[in-house]
Amino acid sequence: MRIAVFVLSLIWLVSGELLEADQDASVPEDWLLVERVGPLEEVELTFALKQQNVNQMEELLKLVSDPDSHQYGKYLSLEEVADLVQPSQLTEKVVQNWLQSHGVKNCHTVVTRDFLQCVMTVQVAEALLPGSKFHRYRRNSQTLLRSTSLYSVHEDVHQHLDFVGGVHRFPPKGKDISKGWEGARQAALGFHLGVTPSVIRSRYNLTAKDVGTATNNSQAVAQFLEQYYHPADLAEFMSLFAGGFTHMSAVERVVGTQGGGKAGIEASLDVEYIMSSGANISTWVFTNPGRHESQEPFLQWMVLLSNMSAVPWVHTISYGDDEDSLSDAYMNRINNEFMKAGLRGISMLFASGDSGAGCRHLTKERNTFRPSFPASSPYVTTVGGTSFKDPFKLSYEVTDYISGGGFSNVFAMPDYQVGAVGKYLKSVQPLPPQTYFNTTGRAYPDLAALSDNYWVVTNRVPVPWVSGTSASTPVVGGILSLINDKRFLKGLPSLGFINPRLYKLQGKGLYDVTEGCHLSCLDDKVEGKGFCASPSWDPVTGWGTPNYPVLLASLMD
């Protein structure tokens, strides 16, 4: 990993009008205010510098991701991406001099030079960003430094920054992904099938021979919400559930520092199922408890990717937040980071969320559906969830009512899905009222997998009834890693950003899910029902769930 350190030596004072930063400044109700932070305590802020050639980057991503393009699969190295997007010399100079004028010297940049991470005292941070006032907040055992007041950036600097990280955004609330505990309703059934690696492999037609063998293949999970896996749990899980196929029982590499304490169910789930569906493939875990209370772990992961020349080909992430809780500037910049990954041939898979269509209460009389980000990003592959029609045997799949899906209120529908989504909107009746969703927005998910009633080993104990798209996402990720494996052995490039190709397949290689609806607002207009599954693509399960051998054959050129 290459890290460049800025030595800021020029003094330059920016003058000009103050502009309000467009960051959300609300405090989630699960965070408690503890105290005003002392002026000499340290914070680490992340400055996202304006990139160059963003439109060119988007066009190039379309070309390298479109199987009908002569540039398909001709990916860029990190250094080539850096040459394309790195900020202008003027942008770098303006931001550096602004920081130096406030005495900020402890800064690190990345290979692409579009992020700058700086450590400074609270006193300096509040002078740098007038209006900011840092406080310490607590949620359970986690503490965080944040400013909830609106801050300003000098006009001459504002135009050179996309956002400043580590000031306003709070991590989203960790959800209880074990919805099966909601009753002993399942437990009382006694002989429920439950989802294990053998069930996954049977349902999606993976044989004992369908394991990784390519030496240059790798996959990864990323964990942010104070979630850690334990190596002993992974070994125990594999000994219990992975007897029928060649597999690895240890993670190849942990990037970041694992926190102490108990293992998290979600972290255990991610690692155990990407490594049992993408069996015998080198697996990395990105984890970040944060060196500073001011860090944003998700943003820290994105910065890491801009500084690592060699990273795994498939990343699965079970993380998201409501679109309306984030600024457009922040989400657009994160989208640029996803495009950078796609240009390098990296596949980014995000869970679609576990709130169905979601619900936002605008007034006492008016609700709308509530899309999630990054699930709603046009530049990632979003994975929804399904359940077995008959929970007592290996049957066909129907919608899992929690499966996140819908239409972005921020991002326009990308070209690659216009035909499929248009067909759904025209052919399915009745749809929810159009006041509840944006018919022209990016629609998600793109595909799905089983998300209900998984077995997980955590803290050395096998735990049943674990559910959520946090389960389906690593399963799909592992299957795409297996396809990459076969492609590498044939001398083909990685799948990269798969959505344009996935939509051109028109459902080939996927089991179409046509039954069931997901949840939404409990009101008299929609009565808790969001969108419903239908033949072909739908905003609950996307194109459906993997039929591995057919999907593999469809993606081997």
TrEMBL record:
It is an enzyme of class 3 (hydrolase). Its main location: other. Its EC number is 3.4.14.9. It catalyses: Release of an N-terminal tripeptide from a polypeptide, but also has endopeptidase activity. It is found in: Lysosome. Its cofactor is Ca(2+). Gene3D superfamilies: Peptidase S8/S53 domain. InterPro entries: Peptidase_S8/S53_dom, Peptidase_S8/S53_dom_sf, S53_propep, Sedolisin_dom, Tripeptidyl-peptidase_I. The keyword DNA repair does not apply. GO terms for cellular component: lysosome. One of its GO terms (molecular function) is metal ion binding. Residues 1-16 form the signal peptide. SUPFAM superfamilies: Protease propeptides/inhibitors, Subtilisin-like. It holds the Pfam family Pro-kuma_activ. GO terms for biological process: central nervous system development; proteolysis. Lysosomal serine protease with tripeptidyl-peptidase I activity. May act as a non-specific lysosomal peptidase which generates tripeptides from the breakdown products produced by lysosomal proteinases. Requires substrates with an unsubstituted N-terminus. This is Tripeptidyl-peptidase 1.
